[in-house]
């Protein structure tokens, strides 16, 4: 490049700069912001209608009389193990291989109070990471007709709870047929249905 070409490129650059400065004359910089504005994270969707439906069903179950199907469901099962699990889970529970990490006593409660107590106790235990529980439901000696209604209802409620893996009657030294030992899933979030 010759000396003359160099000057003309330099002159063009100066001319371009002058044009640019004339174009932005009187412009002011935007104010600086020292923070980034982010949208708050959106909550995960909740199945509200399903929750309302389940709450309505629970309400009906608690307030209404027990239907014949409920009495048939109660059965006389002394133990339960979730479908798909090995029977050794129940055997280990019966043999006391799990230490009891919490207990609740339902003596003197009606079925409504007992249901609230059991569901709350299971939820709290799951949240606290407890796996093995004792639920004392009694033998029904204080019930009308001396029938162990709570003993049967507690079994139904626990069998419907997806977080319950197994349950069995406690040994005589720990309440016998007046108490249940219950094994919960590890670190599960409550998915109560009853």
Automatic annotation (TrEMBL):
Occurrences of domain Smr (ranges): 104-185
InterPro entries documented for this protein: Smr_dom, Smr_dom_sf
Protein name: Smr/MutS family protein
PANTHER family found in the cross-reference section: DNA ENDONUCLEASE SMRA-RELATED
A Pfam family hit: Smr
């Amino acid at each position: 490049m010759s000396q003359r070409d160099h000057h003309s490129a330099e002159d063009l650059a100066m001319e371009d700069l002058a044009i640019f400065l004339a174009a932005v004359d009187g412009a002011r910089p935007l104010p600086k912001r020292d923070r980034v504005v982010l949208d708050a994270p959106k909550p995960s969707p909740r199945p509200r209608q399903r929750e309302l439906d389940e709450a309505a069903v629970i309400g009906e179950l608690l307030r209404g009389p027990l239907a014949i199907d409920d009495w048939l469901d109660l059965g006389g099962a002394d133990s339960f193990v979730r479908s798909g699990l090995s029977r050794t889970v129940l055997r280990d529970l019966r043999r006391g291989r799990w230490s009891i990490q919490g207990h609740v006593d339902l003596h003197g409660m009606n079925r409504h109070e007992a249901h609230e107590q059991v569901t709350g106790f299971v939820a709290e235990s799951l949240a606290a990471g407890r796996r093995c529980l004792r639920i004392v439901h009694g033998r029904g000696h204080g019930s009308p007709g001396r029938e162990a209604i709570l003993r049967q209802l507690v079994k139904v409620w626990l069998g419907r709870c997806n977080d319950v893996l197994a349950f069995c009657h406690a040994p005589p030294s720990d309440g016998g047929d007046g108490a249940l030992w219950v094994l919960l899933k590890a670190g599960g979030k409550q998915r109560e249905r009853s």
